Amino acid sequence: MLPDISSVHVRVPATSANLGSGFDTVGLALDYHDELEFTLNANPDDVAAHIEIHGEGEDTLPRDETHLVVSTFRKACETFGLGRFGFTMVAHNRIPQARGMGSSAEAIVAGIAAAAGFAHRGELNRAAVFDLAAHIEGHPDNVAPAVYGGLTVSYDFEAPEGVGSVGIAGGEPLRRGFHAVNYPVDPDVEAFVFVPDFELSTEKAREALPRQIAHRDAVYNVSRVGLMPAAMNPSSLGADGPAQANALLFAATQDKLHQPYRAPLMPPSTALIAKLRRAGYAAAVSGAGPCVLVLHHGQAADDIAALVAPELASGHWRMLHLPINMTGVEIERR
């Protein structure tokens, strides 16, 4: 089967994973996007991928079938029952590469969503996009918010061996594999991302992690990540909730599982986080780093910018002041 439409436009948000305590499970979508246009080649005999890249990665990303968006798109087309066809992909990238803002998850979600757009009419099947993206990425913490938007908590359900799903009393069977849950985010929450002028590969960041952790450190993180949904939506706590909002965010972003071990890989990021937290701001490494994320209820842009003015003036950092994205990936068929 070949597509019966000529082009699909895809818009995917940046993401920040972990948020301090929620290692490999918690993610947040940010209102900062890559946009890609996929257009069928005019000549049906031309089954090649032609690639244009503008913005982030335009000097470093491949322009052939090894490009992560393209290879993912090809795989997804097979999954969705499409035959091989040629296309031109024009990418307008804003998400920094290898900085901890979900660029690889964005690429995977973009490729799958574009393939789904060509294969099916109607609303985008986000569950199908998430399922395939999580299996390709190998962990769902960044792909979940890229697909669904907002605050997400993801998990890999392990059914007994040989069992595909488990019957749940009074509900639908729970299947094996990756799942994600969306939590409400108060519109008052703002994100600040500090982007450095150096990169850090996720592989190196993972190599820095220990094979075992102390029981007390696991308990510490469990207690903090349990605060995250309330910290992001304090009205759920009643009338007194908003007054506790930033204190909850500060506690919820504490961590002993990954940031201490990765700190030597990114001293400037570690120093910036320490400075921000000493001033009472909920700062953490964004994803595997080296970007730094700050979450705050209410307006604080001027105060935060003044606090980090020396770092910004150095030319080694830039600050992005971003709303939370609540829609996730979007497609438009043309």
UniProtKB/TrEMBL annotation:
Organism domain of life: Bacteria
Subcellular location: Cytoplasm
Entry annotated with the keyword Cytoplasm: yes
CC annotations in GO: cytoplasm
Record field: catalytic activity: L-homoserine + ATP = O-phospho-L-homoserine + ADP + H(+)
Domain GHMP kinase N-terminal stretches: 68-150
EC number, as in UniProt: 2.7.1.39
Pathway annotation from the record: Amino-acid biosynthesis; L-threonine biosynthesis; L-threonine from L-aspartate: step 4/5
Pfam family, one: GHMP_kinases_N
GO biological process, one term: threonine biosynthetic process
Name of the protein described by the UniProt record: Homoserine kinase
